[in-house]
């Protein structure tokens, strides 16, 4: 009897233990399931689809293709071996090579591909300047693969921006600009564009840095992103998660030419101001004060008694520039410009460039342990800051050169040589193709001696009246004379 009672007790205890274990095990399973559900939900949020947003934005992003004519630069004279025997011949070939007539078959038509986006339902499109530079013809392909020829409303090489216009009966989708100043490192972004000519492609990433200076034009506050950007993405939009444009994809950092996770976009707050002017066909004028600056390093700050590495150190001043006239000196540190604190060197060129031409602004400088103030009248940046042009500098579009009178000092140093000096050459002109370069001296036109600008203008006017297709120029370069025939535009 006792044995039966003991066995029954053991069975009951065993059943109770199994039930308790089962409940405990079930509780663990439920917890694991709960954790997995939470993890799934977390991942679901993390990997949420961008499809709805992309579906709204993609129709406003376009492909931009241009036909361009480029000269084949592979035509070269054979390399001569070393040795005194060949030196005279080498010098001869080096002198005449730029003047040799190029075979017209050496010019090639190439197709350049880029991206753009519609900002107005009337067909106004924004892209990069370098996408359409030197274009003979521009074609815009919409999201539905229909194509339209585009005209250029305005372009600005210094900010690498251009505005195009297409005419179509279609109802066009368009996108709006956001405030890039609100973008923070770590914000998620979407890039849409035309990489490698493949058509509309979407990539996502984050803002990996802000206010990057990559020494392109007057923009010094690029947005850096790790969203995949490749060749062909240039001119395409960089969107925030609200579907607003905060940047225009412009450049990549890549040893191989492909995406390595570092791309750069022009901030919308900079681009929008320029685009408004270009839409109206106005020329963008950039402010200039005539200084070259460098960053203030810790070593420089310590040596000058600065508490922090802020400001822009003046390394060079252009003679006669607004900065020169305002008394700014090499070694000064610009710490404030027009009531804007200059916290880093790259900030100064940007704020100066965006300042109204002719405006008088206050500047604060750190000089020899003291902060001093001065006033500078902002000038207009030139296409070539190193070039100081006289009032009689002239650009002849039908020849493709900018010319100026020879300085008297130059004439004295060169046995009284007469003529006019070439300041710049249009790279698309026949003059450039025939080898005319900056610094060349034009001494004769069609066997007529040229002594000054007035004689040059008179002869060119006569050539136009006679409707001639070309002119013969006698060029003097480094004491060597050669005749060059230039086709007129």
From TrEMBL:
Please indicate if the UniProt record lists Cell membrane as a keyword: no
User: Which Gene Ontology cellular component terms are annotated?
Assistant: periplasmic space
Q: Which CDD domains match?
A: cpPDZ1_DegP-like
Q: Name one GO molecular function term.
A: serine-type endopeptidase activity
- Name the residues annotated as catalytic in the UniProt entry: 130, 160, 234
Give the EC number(s) listed in the UniProt record: 3.4.21.107
A GO biological process held by the record:
proteolysis
Q: What is its main location?
A: periplasm
Per UniProt, subcellular location reads as: Periplasm
PANTHER family xref list: PERIPLASMIC SERINE ENDOPROTEASE DEGP-LIKE-RELATED (PTHR22939:SF130), SERINE PROTEASE FAMILY S1C HTRA-RELATED (PTHR22939)
Protein family (similarity comment): Belongs to the peptidase S1C family.
Protein name per UniProt: Probable periplasmic serine endoprotease DegP-like
What organism is the protein native to?
Candidatus Mesenet longicola
């Amino acid at each position: 009897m006792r044995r039966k009672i003991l066995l029954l007790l053991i069975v009951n205890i065993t059943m109770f233990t199994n039930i308790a274990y089962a409940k405990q095990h079930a509780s663990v399973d439920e917890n694991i399931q709960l954790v997995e559900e939470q993890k799934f939900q977390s991942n679901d949020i993390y990997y949420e689809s961008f499809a709805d947003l992309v579906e709204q934005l993609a129709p406003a992003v376009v492909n931009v293709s241009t036909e361009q004519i480029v000269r084949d630069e592979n035509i070269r004279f054979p390399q001569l071996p070393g040795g005194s025997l060949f030196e005279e011949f080498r010098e001869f070939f080096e002198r005449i090579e730029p003047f040799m007539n190029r075979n017209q078959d050496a010019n090639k038509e190439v197709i350049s591909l880029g991206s753009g986006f519609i900002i107005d339902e009337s067909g106004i499109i924004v892209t990069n300047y370098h996408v359409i530079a030197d274009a003979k013809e521009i074609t815009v392909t919409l999201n539905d693969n229909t194509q339209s020829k585009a005209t250029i409303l305005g372009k600005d090489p210094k900010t690498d921006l251009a505005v195009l216009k297409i005419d179509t009966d279609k109802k066009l989708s368009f996108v709006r600009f956001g405030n890039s100043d609100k973008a923070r490192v770590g914000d998620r972004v979407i890039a849409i564009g035309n990489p490698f000519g493949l058509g509309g492609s979407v990539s996502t990433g984050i803002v990996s840095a802000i206010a990057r200076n990559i020494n392109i034009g007057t923009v010094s506050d690029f947005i850096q992103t790790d969203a995949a950007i490749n060749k062909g993405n240039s001119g395409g939009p960089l969107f925030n998660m609200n579907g607003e444009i905060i940047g225009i994809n412009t450049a990549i950092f890549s040893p191989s030419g492909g995406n390595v996770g570092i791309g750069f976009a022009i901030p919308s707050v900079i681009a929008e101001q320029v685009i408004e002017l270009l839409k109206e066909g106005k020329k963008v004028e950039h402010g200039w004060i005539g200084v070259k600056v460098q960053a203030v390093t810790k070593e420089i700050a310590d040596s000058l008694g600065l508490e922090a590495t802020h400001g822009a150190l003046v390394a060079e001043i252009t003679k006669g520039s607004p900065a020169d006239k305002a008394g700014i000196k090499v070694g000064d540190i610009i710490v404030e410009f027009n009531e804007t604190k200059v916290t880093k060197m790259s900030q100064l060129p940007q704020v100066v460039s965006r300042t109204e031409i002719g405006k008088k602004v206050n500047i604060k400088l750190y000089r020899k342990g003291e902060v001093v103030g001065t006033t500078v009248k902002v000038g207009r940046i030139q296409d070539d800051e190193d070039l100081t042009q006289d009032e009689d500098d002239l650009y002849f579009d039908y020849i493709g050169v900018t010319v100026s009178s020879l300085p008297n000092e130059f004439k004295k140093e060169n046995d009284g040589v007469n003529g006019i000096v070439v300041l710049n050459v249009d790279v698309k002109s026949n003059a450039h193709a025939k080898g005319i370069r900056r610094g060349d001296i034009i001494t004769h036109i069609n066997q007529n001696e040229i002594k000054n600008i007035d004689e040059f203008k008179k002869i060119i006017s006569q050539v136009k009246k006679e409707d001639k297709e070309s002119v013969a120029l006698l060029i003097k370069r480094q004491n060597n004379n050669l005749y060059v025939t230039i086709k007129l535009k």
